[in-house]
């Protein structure tokens, strides 16, 4: 009789497991790989970024637009791979926050939490503003006499209510809403780009790819790659749905990597189309105001501009759903760790969603864009600042998780050379990217840097208070296996406060 | 142990072999063993071992201990035993009883024993096979057979089991009606051992109306269960 057969026939009692997960209350194991990937893709919002970011990248490195996007994609894949080192070992709704806390301890964990909450929150505001901007633009086309500020504010509130509704109503509803809206937006943009490519005709791939450009300035290339990187952030957000996903340890890493690959392909398609299109017209891409619309006009697809606008508006709505979904789950995890009040970690009895966290987060996320509209700040300027602050938050959290990964792997005795190198190189590249990002912003007036500095001061103070309140206990509660999942598992009272 | 094996990669066919060796080693070394220790014990490259244990954790054959550093066997490995256990056979006397019940009822008649919280199907109806035996093992509470087994273990608390308890008190059988396939259902009559506990069951699966109005079916199944009890347990 083998040891395995003996263990199955007469299991030894195994203590140390609880009778329910510390993250109980959420709907468990509900959504499959497609909905999970849609969460990450929605948070990235590639349809909106494909039309706007390519333009910005071209502004920094006109000859190397595609190469800069590919470089950003490779860096994102490195981060995705590092995040997956955690995601394939345990399921945690706190995602980057919990991962960093598990690797680097309380202080770094809370810093990562503040950074990723900034990322999700600011990008959610950006998406609400973007959706309202496009909606107002379309309405103004029909009724030019409307009060734009009022209509923008109304659209923000309307979207906020819609997001709150789907988020509370259940993960299956919100994941499916993000999937449908995001698929629609990506499909519209892809169809438009391919139609354009067909009209443009044969293109010179080496010229488009920027290979062999002798006059390429490395500083400009780095700046362009950093801008391209901001188009990828959000790909990790599927990890916040770990508890709600079927087979999370397998599916979350696939969803994260898939989101990077899909977004990268879309950006390359968009870049090739726009670069080749403007080359063929002998026009300057970087100085174009709305390149896809201009190309559509030039190649006789004028009516399609509306298609692109619809796709972009849909992408913004999906982005608002995706980033808020992730944000409330990080708040939920912070509450279950005892950092935030226990009430924030309450779940809806019937729908199994972090409903209280939704009720806490969405008023703020909606109020800032409404305030922007009310005070007459230009919507595009506010979008520029929110996406900049959000990207900085994401990049800081990515740096922390990349530093945490090798430490965590060594602690559990599963460190490998490959994983350490990928995490280390990614952390260094991200840090360089962040510095370059701030330098560029300072050159352009420094609004983002000012907001980020203010946020650092505020979140630093909040972290000090929360740490004092929380006491010395370790952070990083995750979806631990329960005794029933263990052969011979015996319930042990591991969580005295978990009643 | 596997010290003589050439280097194995987790994606090669040999991975199945290595995976079983990992499970065997966790059983031998006990709960809480680390991946590093497993790698040393099995003579497998570390990266391969890490990948294997993570794959096994994904499928819940292994679970990580709460501090994430060690591994224990998952409850799911008990299913492996059901896969490899030699099929038990009914005695010819028991098969004669079963054949009579099958000829009296149009629909599937199956015999199963409850072993260590699992359902071991001893004789599935060849003319009306079980719809999904793997799912029966995975989600017993969805089937009449599984509900009877769970009740016999003393499980309670879910609405399904409360209904099953009522059914058992009223009809002497647990039921599932139209919950998996709209037009069909199943019911299970306990085969009781000398102490009166349900050691197994005779189950019927067929059209839903015969489960909703079970009088006819039960008049054939109850005598079969009574006759099978001394022949099986």
Structural notes for this entry:
The complex is a heterodimer of chains A (499) and B (233). Helices cover 71% and strands 1% of the residues of chain A. In chain A, helix 4 packs across helix 16 (417-443) and helix 6 (106-142) runs antiparallel to helix 13. Chain A has helices spanning 3-9, 33-44, 46-60, 65-87, 96-104, 106-142, 148-169, 171-200, 205-209, 218-230, 248-281, 291-298, 304-336, 355-374, 379-411, 417-443, 447-470, and strands at 14-17, 489-491. Mean pLDDT of chain A is 90; it is low at 495-499. The relative contact order of chain A is 0.21. Chain A has 17 helices and 2 strands. Chain A has one domain (27-444): Up-down Bundle (Amino acid/polyamine transporter I). In chain A, strands 1-2 form a two-stranded parallel sheet. With 499 residues, chain A is an all-alpha fold. Chain B is of the alpha+beta class and 233 residues long. Chain B has 2 domains: 14-74, Arc Repressor Mutant, subunit A (Orthogonal Bundle), CATH 1.10.10; 85-232, Beta-Lactamase (2-Layer Sandwich), CATH 3.30.450. In chain B, the strands form 2 sheets. Chain B has a 5-stranded antiparallel β-sheet with strand order 5-4-8-7-6, with helices on both faces. Chain B has a 3-stranded antiparallel β-sheet with strand order 1-3-2. In chain B, a hairpin with a 5-residue loop joins strand 2 (62-64) and strand 3. In chain B, helix 1 (14-29) packs across helix 3 (46-58) and helix 2 crosses helix 3. Chain A binds chain B through residues 2-9, 11-12, 14, 16-18, 88-90, 102, 247, 249-250, 411-414, 416, 418, 480-481, 484-489, 494, and chain B through 20, 23-24, 27-28, 30-31, 34-36, 46-47, 50, 54, 57-58, 60, 63-66, 68-69, 72-78, 80-81, 116.
């Amino acid at each position: 009789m083998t040891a395995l057969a003996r263990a199955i026939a007469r299991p030894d009692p195994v203590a140390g497991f609880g009778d329910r997960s510390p993250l109980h209350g959420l709907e468990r194991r509900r959504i499959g790989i497609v909905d999970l990937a849609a969460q990450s893709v929605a948070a990235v919002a590639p349809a909106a970024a494909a039309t706007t970011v390519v333009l910005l990248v071209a502004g920094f490195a006109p000859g190397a637009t595609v190469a800069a996007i590919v470089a950003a994609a490779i860096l994102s894949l490195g981060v995705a791979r590092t995040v997956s080192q955690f995601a394939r070992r345990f399921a945690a709704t706190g995602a980057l926050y919990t991962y960093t806390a598990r690797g680097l301890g309380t202080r770094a964990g809370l810093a990562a939490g503040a950074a990723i909450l900034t990322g999700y929150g600011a990008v959610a505001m950006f998406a609400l503003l973007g959706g309202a901007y496009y909606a107002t633009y379309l309405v103004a086309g029909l009724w030019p006499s409307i009060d734009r500020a009022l209509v923008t504010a109304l659209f923000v509130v309307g979207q906020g209510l819609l997001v709150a509704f789907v988020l509370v109503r259940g993960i299956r509803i919100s994941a499916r809403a993000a999937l449908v809206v995001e698929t629609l937006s990506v499909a519209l943009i892809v169809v438009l780009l391919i139609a354009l490519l067909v009209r443009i005709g044969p293109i010179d791939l080496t010229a488009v790819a920027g290979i062999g450009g002798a006059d390429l300035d490395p500083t400009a290339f780095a700046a362009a790659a950093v801008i391209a990187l901001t188009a990828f952030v959000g790909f990790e957000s599927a990890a916040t749905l770990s508890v709600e996903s079927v087979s999370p340890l397998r599916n979350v890493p696939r969803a994260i990597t898939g989101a990077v690959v899909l977004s990268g392909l879309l950006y390359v398609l968009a870049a090739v189309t726009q670069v080749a299109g403007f080359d063929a017209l002998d026009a300057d891409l970087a100085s174009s105001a709305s390149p896809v619309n201009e190309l559509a006009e030039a190649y006789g697809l004028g009516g399609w501009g509306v298609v692109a606008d619809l796709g972009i508006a849909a992408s913004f709505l999906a982005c608002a759903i995706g980033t808020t979904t992730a944000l409330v789950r990080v708040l939920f995890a912070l509450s279950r760790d005892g950092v935030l009040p226990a009430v924030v970690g309450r779940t809806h009895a019937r729908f199994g969603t972090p409903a209280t966290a939704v009720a806490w987060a969405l008023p703020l996320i909606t109020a800032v864009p409404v305030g922007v509209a009310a005070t007459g700040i230009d919507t595009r300027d506010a979008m520029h600042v929110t996406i900049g602050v959000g990207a900085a938050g994401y990049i800081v959290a990515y740096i922390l998780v990349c530093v945490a990964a090798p430490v965590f792997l060594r602690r559990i005795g599963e460190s490998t050379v490959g994983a350490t190198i990928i995490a280390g190189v990614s952390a260094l590249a991200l840090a360089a990217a962040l510095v370059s990002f701030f330098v560029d912003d300072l050159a352009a007036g420094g609004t983002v840097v000012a907001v980020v500095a203010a946020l650092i001061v505020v979140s630093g103070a909040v972290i000090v208070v929360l740490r004092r309140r929380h006491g010395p206990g370790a952070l990083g509660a995750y979806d631990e296996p329960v005794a029933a999942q263990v052969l011979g598992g015996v319930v042990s009272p591991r969580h005295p406060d978990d009643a | 142990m596997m010290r003589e094996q050439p280097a194995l990669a987790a994606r090669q066919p040999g991975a199945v072999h290595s995976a079983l060796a990992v499970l065997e080693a966790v059983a031998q070394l006990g709960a809480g063993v680390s991946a590093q220790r497993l790698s040393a014990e099995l003579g497998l490259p570390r990266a391969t071992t890490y990948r294997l244990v993570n794959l096994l954790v994904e499928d819940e054959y292994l679970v990580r201990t709460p501090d994430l550093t060690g591994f224990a066997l998952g409850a799911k490995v008990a299913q492996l035993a059901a896969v490899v256990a030699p099929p038990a056979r009914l005695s010819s006397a028991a098969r004669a009883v079963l054949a009579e019940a099958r000829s009296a009822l149009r629909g599937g008649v199956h015999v199963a024993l409850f072993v260590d919280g699992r359902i071991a199907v001893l004789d599935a109806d060849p003319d009306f096979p079980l719809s999904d035996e793997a799912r029966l093992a995975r989600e017993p509470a969805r089937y009449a057979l599984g509900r009877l087994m769970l009740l016999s273990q003393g499980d309670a608390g879910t609405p399904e089991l409360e209904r099953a308890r009522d059914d058992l008190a009223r009809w002497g059988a647990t039921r599932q009606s139209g919950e998996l396939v709209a037009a069909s259902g199943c019911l299970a009559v306990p085969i009781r051992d000398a102490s009166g506990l349900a050691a197994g069951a005779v189950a019927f699966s067929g059209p839903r109306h015969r489960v909703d109005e079970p009088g006819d079916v039960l008049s054939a199944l109850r005598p079969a269960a009574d006759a099978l009890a001394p022949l099986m347990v």
